[in-house]
Amino acid sequence: MASDNGSGFAPLVGRRQFLAIAGTTGAAAFLVACSSSGSTGAAAAPSGVGAEINKLIAKGGAAAGKGKTLSLGALEPMTGSGSYYGLEAVRGAKLAIAEIEAAGGPTINLIIKDHESGNTTIAVEAMREFGLDHVGACLMSYAAVDGAALPGIAEYKILSLDGSGGTAQVFDDKPYFWGTRSEGGKDFYGGVFTYVHRFLPKAKRVFLVAYDSGAALNTLNTNELNAVLPTYGMELVGTLFHPGGLTDYSSILAQIQAKSPDIILADEVGLDAGYFMKGYVTTSMTAQVIGFEFTPDAAQVAGSAYNRYWFSGDYFDAANPTNPFAALFVKEFKKAYGVLPEFYAADAYDDTFKFWQLVREVIAKGGNINNGTDLQNALEANPTFPSVYGGTSTTVGTETMNLQTHSVLKRGLGLFKVVNGQPEPLALFQTGSTTLTDVTAP
Predict the structure, then answer these.
(1) What is the mean pLDDT of the chain?
(2) Which of 70, 208, 260, 407 qualifies as a cystine partner to 239, CB 3.0-4.6 A?
(3) Do 417 and 286 reside in the same domain of the chain?
(4) Does 350 map to a domain?
(5) pTM
């Protein structure tokens, strides 16, 4: 059985974490005392939380699955460089399972398989095992482990939600595979550049420096920027894609400085973002750096350099939950584990609740809750789910799936600055939107 216990911290792998990152440095990975797979249900039900869940998003009882058992797979990085993510995801899923059962939902048997932070051979075998065991629902990661799990997902008709890598765009519209994170730049460029245009009106020249995600994604990133920047009177003056795991950015920074940018889009992953900023502050450049993720270990590497760093994306701000469902999640997560949750846990928590909504809808139609086709049909009939992202102080957030791309159509996103190692929101917005809320000046 997968364990929640561990020692040390592994580098946190970022938005495109399904891609292999060579040479990552950092402290030791969490040591998970488990085999490559395990089966576990809920932790002890949090006292009184069931009533709160029912008040916020559902009603318990037979119609909600009480008395039934859902087999829920989880293909996660429980060992290797991404084990921190796997631990957080499993914690989020287990908390959701406990709350769902406390609210009168089904018993959820969580079956964890460890892909060892990107082992595609294991991913293929895991899907075969899930299929033979008639598992119809699965929590995924690493964009279904770099696509290797997708044929098995389709063959065995396992409804799969990837809350870590999303669909990564290159895996849009794959059978039974749905990405529940924002897609690359296109989902948040509108919000980011609307803010920049308002508060940095003299910024015209944009440079993109990024982890090399392969020709297809690199070209996609470049084309998206060339399409959107003219709307804001800006131009892309250069791009530079590099291998992951760098600690010395001096030559890269020299190439960027030669282009005299006003905005540097630093699409860096893991610790790379921290090392980039650590090098950036030694230059004479004054361009605003905007990244696309925040992780505490990268912030520790950067130190005070992160005071010049902004980032945008579907970051879960546990210190400032935006809606009642999020506030409950943070409270119960801290009670259960003694720490605030990261977005890895938030995404797995959200996705587990998505499966409960689908279970309720399948039951209403007389279907089989362990049948992936029945679950996907329910998703397609109603692709909007409660979420810990977005919302207001009195209204639960929602997330809507795009039926054409199998990615997120609507989700709460934001632009943040970093002050002494802690993110502070500059503006909030929805997926693909240019409408900003809760706006503060830089």
Answers:
(1) 87
(2) 208
(3) yes
(4) yes
(5) 0.78
